[in-house]
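Figure 3 (text version): structure tokens given as input.
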């Protein structure tokens, strides 16, 4: 059985999940939301607080609705061509962006 397991849940992204289910692209396998999947152990308990604060300060200085946040987490991987396409799309969007 083929399918796509996503780290989300229906109540959070119902419109997107419904669009995928009802879409015209029949080659998309079934989507199974199974989340949220959380990492319960902080692997860097003392290290990144200052980094987070500088990011929040930068965000606070940006105009409202002017930054794209892109987060694939540690569970997804991309080949070099995909990363270049994502970077090109973000660059061409004209928006500031923040990746995680």
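Below: residues designed for each position.
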């Amino acid at each position: 059985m083929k399918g796509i397991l996503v780290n989300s849940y229906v109540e959070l992204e119902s419109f997107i999940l419904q669009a995928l289910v009802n879409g015209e692209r029949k080659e998309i396998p079934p989507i199974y939301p199974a989340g949220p999947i959380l990492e319960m152990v902080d692997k860097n308990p003392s290290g990144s607080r200052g980094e987070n604060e500088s990011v929040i300060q930068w965000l606070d200085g940006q105009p409202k609705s002017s930054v794209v946040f892109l987060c694939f987490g540690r569970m997804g991987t991309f080949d070099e061509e995909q990363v270049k396409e994502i970077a090109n799309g973000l660059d061409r969007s004209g928006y500031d962006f923040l990746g995680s």
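The helical segments are 14-22, 49-60, 80-93.
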